[in-house]
Every structure is written in C-alpha cells, then in structure tokens.
Design brief:
The chain has about 350 residues and is mainly alpha-helical. The chain has a single domain, classed as Up-down Bundle (Amino acid/polyamine transporter I). It contains 16 helices and 2 strands. It has a two-stranded antiparallel ribbon. A hairpin with a 5-residue loop joins strand 1 and strand 2. Helix 1 packs parallel to helix 7, helix 5 runs antiparallel to helix 11 and helix 10 packs across helix 13. The chain is globular and about 55 Å long. The chain starts with a helix and ends with a helix.
Length: about 350
C-alpha cells in the first residue's frame, strides 16, 4: 500500500508530471527544447518520427481476459507463505483469535494496495507495473535503480526464502528437525533446487513452464485438501481445539505483532503481477481494477479458511512448535483422524 501511495503522489504532483502519448502512457522521452533547435537541422522529435518504423517498440498482444488475470494472480500469490506463515503468526501473537485478526488486517492492507494500483492500472496500458509508474513519476534513473534492486536484492531474497521453505518441507520427510545435520541438509537441498530450476529454464522455457504448472497444481491441491479436512472436522463436531476463548494467551507485545504482520503480508504478496501484464489484458482500464479486487477478496477468504482449518486440526501448541505444518498433518493424517 505504501509503495503504491508514494508512486501515486509522484505522478499526481505537477512538478513530476511528464508528457503523455496517444495511449495515455506517461513518457519522459517526449520533451523537446525548442530554444536549442537550430534552423535546417532536424529536431529530436523529427528524427524520432522518421525512425518510427525501425525503432518503435514491440507491443504485447492483449489476449488475457478477467478470468485469466485472476487465475494467474491467485496462482502467483499462493505459495510458500500459507504453509509457513501460520506458524510464525501464532508463535508471535499467542492465540487463535489474534492470529486470525492479523491475517484479516494484512488482507485489508493488501486490498488498500490493490485499490491504489487500480488507479495506476487504468492510467497505463503497457506492461511493466511499478517500473512504468516510477519512470513516469520520478524518471529513468529511479526506475532503472528499482529494477536492479528487484533483480539483485528483493527477488533474490524471495527466491532464497521460497527454496528454503521447500527444502524444509522436503527434508522433514526424511529427517527430524533436531538432527545435527538438518540445517546443512536443508540449505544443500535449497541450493540444489535453485540450480535445478535455473538449469531447466536455461535448457527449455517450455519445460520450465510445465514445471511451474505442475507445482502450482500440487500446492493448490495440498491447500484444498487441508481446507477440506478442516471443514470435515467442523462438520463432524471435532472442534475441541477451537472450542475455547480464541483470544486466550494473546501476547501484548507490539514488536512481536510487527513480526506477525511481516509473516502474513509475505503470504499475500504477488497480486501486483496483474499490473505487470497490463499490456496483455483486454480492456485493461476496466479489467485490471476488477481483477485486483477479486484476487484480494479470494486470497483473504482462502487464507482465513485455511488458518481456521489449521487451528481445527492441530492444537495451538503444535502450531507454535512445528514449522512444516502441512507435513505434520499429512504425515500423521491416519493418527489425526483416529484420535476422535
């Protein structure tokens, strides 16, 4: 939300407002100093018009509709966060009720960011997302630096976090977390996962796309099974884990609440990919805002239901101590179902 607000302020400020082209896209490159144009010498604008056929950028074809945009955003958003963050949130706040409150507030903050991006998405018809917005508001240098920060720091850290989450779940199938070599094995598995993904994408983009689709189906399937199990427990009356004061044991420690917000907001990140592909979306002026709002409503609903399922299936003490929650549930699914 803050990022989008800062960008919007820059665009709204007349000092930073650049020129616009025929597509309604802000462009800092269209400025010509007419006082410095010599007689008989073609201006920069004339040169650019003469070379339009050879230098015009290739535009992406708008072929995605509302359903495509929402499905891509939901698949992009649902990732390692929902399988790891519930443990971090409960550990920080100490109660069921406060953890669900954190998830709801985080979803509301994401919705506010989406509403900010709705306005930006209607102003720009080209793909690029934040790059286009920062370029329009603050110029080429700021947008160039933003891309480098994303490529070197933000995306790299995100890749490391996701690979470590995968490695933790993978190694938990074969080793106990208390084993001396668990940490080294987890880091080795994470490194191997990154190298394999790089090798696959270098070898064939099509194979990399298939791999992404397969893992997307697997994570959505696992999350669906967890939610169905939670619904089954509630319908069967097996609700002793949540039949108590939901706010009992809440920690009144605001720094810990901040950590809980970081953990939950991590799970909500990814919806801004809709703005990244604005140029590929049909009727983007209307479709982008609708897709952003629908995606965030879906994510808030899924995450709240998933967390209620976690709390219904497992006691809060287990949620606090076990990081690979889904593995604990699937590994001991027979024992869990026979406890009742």
């Amino acid at each position: 939300m803050t990022r989008g607000s800062i960008i919007s302020l820059g665009i709204a400020n007349p000092v930073f407002r650049p020129n616009t082209d025929e597509e309604g896209v802000f462009d800092n490159d269209g400025f010509v100093d007419h006082e410095k144009v010599e007689i008989g010498v073609p201006s920069v604008q004339e040169k650019s018009e003469a070379d339009t056929a050879s230098t015009a950028p290739t535009e992406l074809k708008a072929s995605l509709n509302l359903g495509h945009a929402v499905s891509l955003a939901v698949g992009q958003t649902i990732g390692s966060g929902i399988f790891v963050s519930p443990n971090d949130v409960v550990k920080q706040v100490g109660s069921i009720g406060m953890s669900l409150t954190i998830w709801l507030i985080s979803g509301t903050l994401s919705m506010c960011g989406a509403l900010t991006f709705c306005e930006l998405g209607t102003m720009f018809k080209r793909s690029g997302g934040e790059y286009q917005y920062i370029k329009a508001a603050y110029g080429k240098l700021a947008s160039f630096l933003y891309l480098w920060v994303c490529g070197v720091i933000r995306n790299g850290m995100g890749c490391a976090a996701i690979s470590l989450t995968f490695a933790h779940y993978f190694m938990d199938l074969f080793m106990d977390e208390d084993d001396p070599g668990f940490v080294i094995a987890k880091k080795s598995a994470a490194t191997a996962a990154i190298l394999i993904i790089i090798a696959v994408n270098v070898w064939s983009t099509k194979i990399g796309l298939w791999m992404q689709n397969i893992f997307t189906v697997l994570k959505l399937g696992a999350l669906s099974v967890l939610i169905i199990m939670g619904i089954y427990f509630i319908c069967a009356g097996k609700t002793q884990n949540i039949n108590k004061n939901w706010f009992e044991g809440t920690t009144i420690d605001f720094p810990k609440w901040t950590n809980a917000f970081f953990a939950s907001l991590w799970a909500y990140s990814g919806w801004n990919c809709i703005n990244m592909m604005s140029g590929e979306i049909k009727n983007s002026t209307k479709t982008v805002p609708r897709a952003l709002v629908i995606t965030n409503v879906i994510m808030i609903s899924i995450y709240l239901v998933a967390n209620i399922a976690y709390h219904t299936i497992l006691p809060i003490k287990v949620l606090r101590n076990e990081r690979a929650i889904a593995v604990v549930i699937f590994w001991h699914i027979d024992n869990i179902l026979t406890l009742f």
